Amino acid sequence: MHELNFIVLLAGVVAGAAPLVFAVLGETLTEKAGVINLSLDGTLLLSAMVAFAVTFETGSLLLGFGAAALTGAAVAAVVGVAGIFLGQSQLAVGFVLTLMCRDLAYFLGNPFARLHGPQVLPLPVPFLNELPVLGPILFHQNLLVYLNFLLIGLVWFYMYGTRWGLELRAVGEHPQAAYARGINVRRLQMLYVLAGGALVGVAGAAFSLCTKPGWGRPQGAEGMGWIALAIVIFGGWHPVKVACGAYLFAWLQMMGISFQNQWPSIPAQVFQVAPFPLMIFVLLLMHFSQKRAVEQWAEKHPWSLPLIRFFHGTAPASLGQPARKRLGS
Amino acid sequence: MVIEFQDIHKHYGASVANRGISFRVEPGRIHGILGENGAGKSTLMKILSGYTVKTSGRILFDGRPVEYGTPAAALDLGIGMLYQEPLDFLPLTVLENFMLGQASGFLQSRAYYERKLEEWCRQLGFQLNPGLPVGKLTLGERQQLELLRFLTLGVDVLILDEPTTGISPVQKEVLFEALKRLASQGKTLLIVSHKLEDVEALCDRVTVLCDGAVAGNLDAPFDTEQVLGMMFGTPPAPPPRCTASLGSTVLSFEEVSATGGRAGLTRGSASFRRGEVVGLAGLEGSGQGPFLRLAAGLEEPLGGLIRLGERVMNGLDPLEFRRSGVTFLPTARLEEGLVPGLTLSEHFALAFHDRTFVIPWNEVTSWTEKRIDRFRIRGRADSPVESLSGGNQQRILLSLVPEAPIVLLLEQPTRGLDLESARWFWQQLQGLCANGTTILFSSAELDEILRVSHRVLVFYNGSIVLNVKTDETDFNQLGRAIAGKV
Amino acid sequence: MREKSETLKGIAVELCMSLGVVLAFTTAVLLLAKAPPLQGYRYLLEGSLGSWTKIAQVLTVWVPLTLCACGLQYTFRIGLWNIGVEGQVFMGAMGATAALRWGVGSEFPLLWLVLSALAGALSGGVWALLAGLLKSKGGVNEIFGGLGLNFVAQSISLWLIFGPWKRPGIASMSGTEPFPPELWLPSLEGWRVSPHALLFTVAVILGTGRLLQSTRIGLALKAVGGNVRAAPLFGLHAGRWMLLAMVLGGGLAGLAGTFQVTGVYHRLIPSISSQYGYLALLVVMLANYRLLWIPFIAFFFAALNVGSIQLPMMLQVDSSLSGVIQGALVLATLLVHGWREKAAERRDAETARRAGGERHA
Predict the structure, then answer these.
(1) Contact B358/C360, CB-based, under 8 Å?
(2) Predicted-complex ipTM score
(3) Does domain C58-316 correspond to CATH entry 1.10.3470?
């Protein structure tokens, strides 16, 4: 009985994290190239709305996901053009877009509110889903979850195993030096802003077509964009760690739901906002784990070293800085 | 490859960096570009390396005029430039840095490049660990890596900008050896420097720039007097040493350890007396930076005691240090010392009018104008500090020092100043020292340290390895200590 | 460069271009939602400025919006993104409500109104201080800290409304039990906007201007914002000034929340902030962080907000259109400004090149 519960819980975590994994991987690509796309929260909602509307009208899930990816890339393009080419503050532009895309989603999505539309269905992998324990957790899921697994590996391999990945890391670290080596910095940054935005768009579609099917005001994905941004910091800009962060977050969310069932006297509102103080707490933890005193303590307690190291991750050195210096123009 | 500059001009807005420069560089030789700071050397070399676009004029390679505007295009033509602060990526490994920009294809053939790196290292006598992050290397090693990278890219022309600043004498020897070998293989080498001894040891020919124009060309062996004459007109006399008698101990370090910089500080002990001028020598990042910041209260010691007079200062915040008469002038003026966006009067209002809540702007402005006069700052009370030149920014910093500080801490105070400004700067400092101020300063120039200070502390890898009176030491002993050989 | 784009003509050109872009974009959005654009604009205009009552309504929105925007002047000046202003409005509203609950039935209602303002400012300030401490002591970026605290503040208000402060018998989204009229901020007959609040807001604008222009506070905030690392060399404790800026900004946001309780809703409701905190960030950005522009832009944004209220009824579209227009306006201004700056830079480079070429031809 206990074991079964555990398996159901983990399967729920893996499924629930699906949209977040897309979003955090997308933002990791963007930030690794030195650009912050702060508009995630609005982008997620807008692309979720677009995905639902397109799928509802055409009946094609594929078109829905495609339209959402394009939406995400389009919003990101605004951040990219303003931040990379026009030298405006990426934070300011991203924040405005956050609010505007949310309102745009509510405005344009009004006719589609509370309608029942198509959604992504489970697709168990033959044979593998019959494995004990792992089968139901990993292989009795929908296509999005399998794409998650694939994407985590792919992004990791791309960043650390290929030449383009090396250039990506270089650009975010020291754009001037990358320029001196013949890399077209602005083009690369724009490319990763677009790619990251498209992935965020897919994440939005994953919300409205799978995890929280349907459209409404509120949709239920509100605030997730901010969580995703915090997870990227938590994961130290490393694709695998960032994905772990998304799964950890989904797990905590599941725990919240089961706690809520156990203590019905505590108002539901407390559990609904639990992710946000949690986010602050995790960022605090990260900060203090990097303090020298903690490091010295860890050196004396070797068991804690892997844990402390997990929290280590430095931001790309040029993150968020406008390319004011003459670059390729 | 023969390089010919013909009438090169470069304007930055209203200011002119190069005004009609023409000369020739022959292949297989080491050609020095000499000149004071601001003479236009760096600008000219940035034009040659494609990092900056010239305003007018022509560059000819082997008699053919060429036009290009990016470092990548310059590399394709066979020109590479090694900057004073290497343009590399600190968190990436040596191998990754080596591959970046030259590897092609989607997948990386690490093994191939590792072999190539090893091969070149052996040829030039360098030792680099391919798996180490570049952030853990010394400046000299980073320079070596960049050099190797350019060589594998097959450059014919190598430009080196102040290659001996911040590297140890041993590394300098290795570097010079390698450069001579490359010249003998037919490469063209351009060395930008303002250090005569480097040029004399290395170059076959020098072009001296002065105020954006060519002052003359000379062949080895060089006549030092003649070169100096071209660089400065008549060289100013070096500043004399302060002769005030020393008083009681005002600042002391007892076994102080701290992090920060490349090496941190390990168990540093020293004490300083009233009216004393002490030079902190050592390679950049050997511990002088943390030492000065500890003394200013900007960093907290992990262990040991810092005393001002009798008072233990550990754990007090920088404002308490300031109140007790400690002033610190950092080397990165706009980054650490001044506030970009604020005008001169706003700076003075901040520093001197902290008693009143409402700021008496009229009073501040007239006060500011007086200071501008006294410190010969070229700027107006309402000009933002970032619009002033480096030398003038240094003057502002000095003018912000309170009337009679007890301890004045200076980080590379004359870096980037021409000789005349540096002399003026030291004259002002000596005025303070005569009134009993204790001055601690770090410098990359041993000459300067030997000339003006009573005592020298030599830093190596975070430790104070030598603490001697200037009269009881010489250039050689200090040079060895800087390299860690005491 | 700066002088060039800041001349009056430059501002006018940029404004016209931005407005054109926004008009085109909004029209497209309206068409996409199958709503007649012209009618949409008419309803927006009539709904906000069509009558004195409407204008009074706009002014009741203008007050909290301007207060929040003035508060943001302090935090932006020192380089902090006080995104937590939204939560600070919530806390201010809760603080004020708590004070007023004590005052119900008292013989000195005026005293309790003043106390509620103090409590509101204090709660907002403390909430901002928390975000500031998270930043200075805990290394949590103020954007994430502030945002997280926004959600927490909102949930606390929900909990209060549905828990300890619920209406006798029923708990509902309509909020707590309304206060008796003597605890309402007095308003003129038929005006429905409190003259005291308007006067107070004008005083806050002037006071903020004076404080930032000519006192040590303004100078210190600017200096720390300009270069944190240089601050200790001038005897400034960067961390403390940041906290002060946060407290000042949070206090004003708390007053905005107080006004929502005492002057508008006369009780605590779940959406008491009406998202004015986030909107104030847009106001300040559009004003290019200048105080002088803030009251006017705040009025314009308030008008958009009020005007869009009747859109769902008249055109069957969502009222979030105002948010779309406001966002588009800020975005267009940023883009147009950036584009013009770039163009001017390119022109300068070109003239320099040509002048050089001619001189040495």
Answers:
(1) no
(2) 0.90
(3) yes
